[in-house]
């Protein structure tokens, strides 16, 4: 983990996120804590990550998401050389879909 993100305020934020139980709770929390632009940027990066994981091309991703090649490249770099956060969630969601465990369930892997 990036040492710059290891501090009491960041730790408190991660605890707050872990307290969320449902997609609706997540939406409400993130709507309150982020600006609309920040929310859109996060959603776009997540869409880019999922499409890269599916093997889609930069051109397809840019067309579908409106993301710049720089954003797509940044997400690709994080998928390849990052802290494995994207990979962790992508893989967990694949398992959840295979097992048809509803989002927000405490029984998710």
Automatic annotation (TrEMBL):
Which GO terms of the molecular function aspect are on file?
DNA-binding transcription factor activity; sequence-specific DNA binding
Instruction: Extract the Gene3D superfamilies matched here.
Output: TrpR-like
One of the Pfam families matching this protein, by short name? Trp_repressor
Please give the name of this protein: Transcriptional repressor - histidine operons
Native organism is Candidatus Hydrogenisulfobacillus filiaventi
């Amino acid at each position: 983990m990036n040492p710059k993100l290891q501090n009491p305020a960041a730790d408190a934020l991660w605890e707050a996120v872990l307290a969320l139980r449902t997609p609706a709770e997540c939406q409400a929390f993130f709507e309150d804590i982020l600006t609309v632009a920040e929310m859109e940027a996060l959603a776009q990066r997540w869409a880019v990550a999922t499409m890269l994981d599916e093997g889609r091309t930069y051109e397809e991703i840019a067309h579908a998401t409106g993301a710049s090649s720089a954003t797509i490249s940044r997400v690709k770099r994080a998928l390849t050389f990052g802290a494995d956060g994207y990979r962790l969630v992508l893989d967990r969601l694949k398992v959840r879909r295979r097992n048809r465990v509803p989002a927000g369930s405490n029984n998710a892997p």
